[in-house]
Amino acid sequence: MPEIEDSNTAALNVFSLAGKLALITGGGSGIGFYIAQSMVQAGAKVVITGRREGVLQEAVATLGPNVHYFTNDVTQLSTIPTLIESIEAKHGPIDILVNNAGINMKKHAIEVTDEDFDRVIQTNLHAVFAVTREVGKRMIVRKKGSIIMITSMAALYGIDRVVAYTASKSAVGGMVKALATEFSPYNVRINAVAPGFIETPMMLTAMNGDPSRRDKAMDRTPMGTWGKPDDIGWAAVFLASPAAKFITGVSLPVDGGNSIGF
Ligand code: NDP
Questions:
Q1: What's the complex ipTM?
Q2: pLDDT at residue 171 is higher than 80
Q3: How far apart are the CA of 161 and the centre of ligand 1, in A?
Q4: What are the start-end ranges of the H helices in 42-126?
Q5: Does 203 sit in the ligand 1 pocket, CB within 6 Å?
Q6: 256 within ligand 1 shell (Cβ under 6 A)
Q7: Which residues form a coiled coil (predicted)?
């Protein structure tokens, strides 16, 4: 009989990200900040990106010495190869990529301009693909890696007044499945976390001034509460960890039951 590892040690090991480098786009604030925090607590070294240097500096000061930042706008697609090259030159190979940076835009569909639509698609879809392609090709050569997309319940069912956002997040959900078929033979896994209503500046801004919308959100959440950003952080740790080593191509709702159609 093989010797059975002490159960606590086994559990700690299987969820550990010790020795891994994680890149989290939009990691300076909101959900991204808490993903960074959870990954550091799981033992990873983390690089966060975003457009606002002051926000990134503050996050690094709060999260401690295992977190570093690079200022970058993901919609500047031509800068992405240099960004990834610079991160790996300074910190080593990226083991985990979390595509978290995203924007929302709440408008009636008929008021959405081409510029509005393009801006959301550029940030939430095209940039996600461009970062994934750049990091993914390096992971494929190294034959290891885990990529996590942060999509939304909007990728799972229709929500009014967020047409471009819904289109972008649904497309990323599809991209996860397509890429999983291509990346799996190289031991690179790709999954999504689909958050429900999570208390962050983005969500609170979207709900502000519209209490009926807030009530509606809670009415359709069986658990009856808002999620906390670290609920997404720990789901991302799970998907990145050896505990999820046979999981690829899935979108994991983390939403208090919202997506079951309450
Ligand atoms: P926030 O607005 O709080 O944070 C968004 C982050 O993305 C910021 O750190 C921002 O940094 C960064 N970002 C935005 N645009 C760019 C860009 N062009 N280049 C680089 N970084 C950028 O949003 P949340 O934390 O709420 O959202 C995080 C993710 O979770 C998003 O993908 C969102 O769609 C998703 N989500 C959130 C839900 C919620 O309930 N909050 C629900 C479902 C999904 P900076 O401005 O400095 O660039």
A1: 0.99
A2: yes
A3: 18
A4: 53-63, 80-91, 114-121
A5: yes
A6: no
A7: none
- Determine the distance separating the centroid of ligand 1 and the alpha carbon of 1, expressed in angstroms: 49
Residue 209, pLDDT score: 61
List the single range of 5-9, 107-111, 134-138, 144-148 with lowest mean pLDDT.
5-9
Which atom of ligand 1 is nearest to 232's Cα?
Answer: 30
Ordered domains of the chain (ranges, CATH):
16-199+229-253 (3.40.50.720)
Nearest CA to ligand 1 atom 40: 198
- Residue 145, exposed/middle/buried by CB under 10 A (0-12, 13-18, 19+)? buried
Q: What pLDDT is stored for residue 4 in this prediction?
A: 73
CA distance 186 to 244: 16
75 CB under 6 A from ligand 1? yes
* pLDDT value for 208: 67
Q: Model-level pTM?
A: 0.96
Among protein residues, the one with the nearest Cα to ligand 1's atom 33 is 102
Cβ(189)–Cβ(136) under 8 Å?
no
